[in-house]
Fold these 2 entries.
Entry 1:
Amino acid sequence: MPRPRRSTYRWGVSLDDNELPRTEDEWRVRLTPEEFHVLREAGTERPWTGEYVDTKTQGVYHCRACGLELFSSDTKFDSHCGWPSFDDAIPGRVKEIEDRSLGMARTEIRCARCDSHLGHVFHGEGFTPKDTRHCVNSISVRLEPR
Ligand SMILES: [Zn+2]
């Protein structure tokens, strides 16, 4: 009997470290196929399709896989790139990894706790005074409105 799919995330509740899945198969049953592809296989949702691209709601964006708070809506800005963009992350919550796939030198960002893929971070584009754009897949996060 296949186990029923369910989301790990409960509104306002996050998983303890010792409840995190240990294998990709465990993640696969906890996430939807679309979530699994982006979060665990470093996929990218198509631009302008994510639910938070133009969201202005105040709140905190949590990791959709483990519930860790990652980004405040205070740092969200309009980049017109087709994905939610933040010029800062909550300190210590996002880790950066060099990504040389697709023949480009980019910096991947992942959840610091569960290692799920969030998107990429870019510097020097001049969008905001912090000059940083965390380009995040909507499906990697979930907004908890303030
Ligand atoms: Zn996470």
Note: The pocket of zinc ion is lined by residues 63, 65-66, 68, 111, 113-114, 116 (CB under 6 Å).
Entry 2:
Amino acid sequence: MNFQAPEGTKDITPEQVVLWNRLETAARETFARFGYEEVRTPIFEYTALFHKSSGETTDIVEKEMFTFGDPEDKKGTYSLRPELTPGTIRALIEGGLFAKKNFWKVWYLGPAFRKERPQKGRYRQFTQIGVEAAGSPDPLVDAETMVLFAEILKAVGVTAWELRVNSIGCKECRPVYREALKNHIRPLLPTLDENCNRRFERNVFRILDCKVDADKLKDAPKAIDHLCQACKDHMAVVEASLKACEVPYRIDSRIVRGLDYYTRTVYEFSSSALGSQNALAGGGRYDTLVGSMGGPDVGSVGFAAGVERILLAMGGEAVPPAPDFFAVAAGDVSRSDVFKIVVDLRRKGLSGDLDFEARSVKAQMRSANKTGARYALFIGPEEVQKGVIKLKDMKDGTEKAVFHEEAVNILRGGKK
Ligand SMILES: [Zn+2]
Ligand SMILES: [Zn+2]
């Protein structure tokens, strides 16, 4: 019987993990420079949290959640998180963090789950990396999250990206726009697909998201033309800051984001290096979310990026870091003695391995070569008795026998 990974999931093998680590390290380092702190939350939450935050009318909550548990349970069922924003905001509120300071900049990295039909570039378990800057209405924060993501892309060598920005207004000007949009779309409804017809009453903005009907909607009124003065001023600062920081962007009136909680700034990063699923990250401002979840009435901005997508855009070769040494047990040396020397070296901060199959010296040398180790260490009975190690420089082939302390110095020197 051969077992298979569940449909829509993917293993990360030791070879692939090298790229993952490169991205994670670059992201951690960038988050730290920008003053964002890490938060970790459970991979499942009470289902009600997602209904409250992501919105009842979004596709995610309607049909893409893995829900389990007893529906009769007073606290309701559980759902695997389809995104990390709701849990992160819940954690900030539940942990009483806003009592300690008004403004939190946090980041997260972890798996999320959606029960959609698996297809290329879309998984049922995927990994999100993102930030929430909760507690400030300042448009500079909107710009900061975009600059931050652009910096992460730069750090991992992704250059073929595009940033599209839009403003969808606030509770003052959005209803005006909603009416204008509805008036424009109403006569078109019979020509639009079933999805769009369903969305018309429930969430008309999402019709602009429709790929099937995009052509029929190209003359639809734009949110950005219906902004109130405060929203216009906000957007002007966002744009000026992106220009000042030399982050290229363009205004795209079709960006509405799929979730209900967005206000004002919304944006998407995409990559031309990817196929049809070309989105790298989506984000924006949600000024009502924290308050609506029982927290203080503060504005927030955030983005969520798909780790698997970034990795695809990164491409490049995954070369695992080479170890400092490979120990070769020579002659009839006690392999326990060799093992102890290897452990000693590791305890001194060096990386390396030995042969665990009691093979010939020749076979062990092949392993030494394969690992790409900087030095091969020959340890025979004579070396053990004298307390020395014979070092072979794998680059130039030179050999010399040195005492352990000197060996440590040389191996450390060989470190990049
Ligand atoms: Zn407004
Ligand atoms: Zn449609």
Note: Residues 262 and 286 are 4 Å apart (CA to CA).
